[in-house]
Design a protein that fits this description.
The protein has 278 residues and is of the alpha/beta class. The protein contains seven helices and 13 strands.
Length: 278
């Protein structure tokens, strides 16, 4: 259940970035298809395919939301980010992670991030980061649907905590003559239906009635949105710039953690609560 790792953080109150000269910060979203990184004071500086070239061929170290090659992830982060950090910097890093199978992902991600010599590492569910990027009111039931290139997650949030989640190894990269936008929308609708049937309260129904929050590359495809709206007549709210919502939300959470009076021993602010395993 522990999704936050602190090592050697400073208890004194930090100044807002980029005025703080004692440390820097990185928000990181390592997806199966693309890796995106935000650096304090610079914004989103990396948005590239998740791939490395250790030899003659290409290696894809993250597949279907799972880190399958931690050393190559570290090699990729070293190549993409090390030269962008101040000399001798010990950054605070926040990494988004899938909700399900998150424990293994978080462990491997923290190992890979060690190549950047962080003074602290936090992990947050991608769905929570998306909600933060959208400025959503998380005091009410909220359903987040993240349709990525290789993975789709449906996550139910209550007060920012995960109360239910479903996933499928299906995404926009699978669209072809046999896999249609309607099929992806149908799978999402089936996961939502399963959550509604399992919930004996009105919590899930309230979230659906409020409208699902849609992010990921699938949110850039009008045909996916149309099919989702037609399925169960679900209202759909698309996050602005949905393909970068996860890293942008992580950046906001990172800034909140950075300015908190204590980033080491005191409780974190509610927005950056530890990643909970469903």
């Amino acid at each position: 259940m522990t999704g936050v790792d602190h090592s050697g953080t400073t208890a004194a109150r930090h100044r807002p970035w980029p005025l703080c000269r004692r440390c820097c910060g990185i928000a990181l979203d390592m997806g199966s298809a693309r890796t995106r990184a935000w650096i304090a004071g610079k914004g989103v500086v990396v948005d590239v395919p998740t791939v490395t070239f250790p030899g003659a061929g290409a290696v894809h170290p993250v597949q279907r939301g799972t880190i399958i090659d931690t050393p190559e992830c570290a090699r990729m982060l070293q190549r993409l980010l090390a030269h962008r950090l101040p000399r001798s910097a010990r950054p605070m890093v926040i990494v988004t992670a899938p909700v399900l199978d998150g424990l293994a992902y978080r462990t491997q991600a923290r190992t890979a991030v060690d190549v950047l010599r962080p003074h602290s590492v936090l992990t947050v569910p991608g769905a929570r980061a998306i909600a933060v990027a959208a400025g959503a009111d998380m005091s009410r039931p909220l359903m987040v649907v993240d349709i990525g290139a290789h993975l789709t997650e449906v996550v139910l949030l209550g007060d920012g905590d995960i109360t239910d989640a479903r996933r499928t190894a299906l995404g926009t990269s699978d669209l072809d003559d046999t896999t249609t936008p309607g099929e992806i929308a149908g799978v999402v609708a089936s996961m939502v239906t399963a959550m509604l049937r399992q919930d004996r309260t009105s919590f899930t129904a309230d979230a659906v009635h409020r409208g699902i929050l849609l992010a990921g590359g699938g949110a850039l495809r009008p045909e996916v949105i149309r099919h989702l709206t037609e399925q169960r007549h679900m209202p759909v709210r698309v996050v602005p710039a949905p393909h970068t919502a996860s890293v942008r939300g992580a950046a906001r959470l990172l800034q909140a953690a950075h300015t908190h009076p204590s980033a080491s021993s005191d409780p974190l602010p509610p927005a950056v609560r530890p990643h909970r395993t469903v």
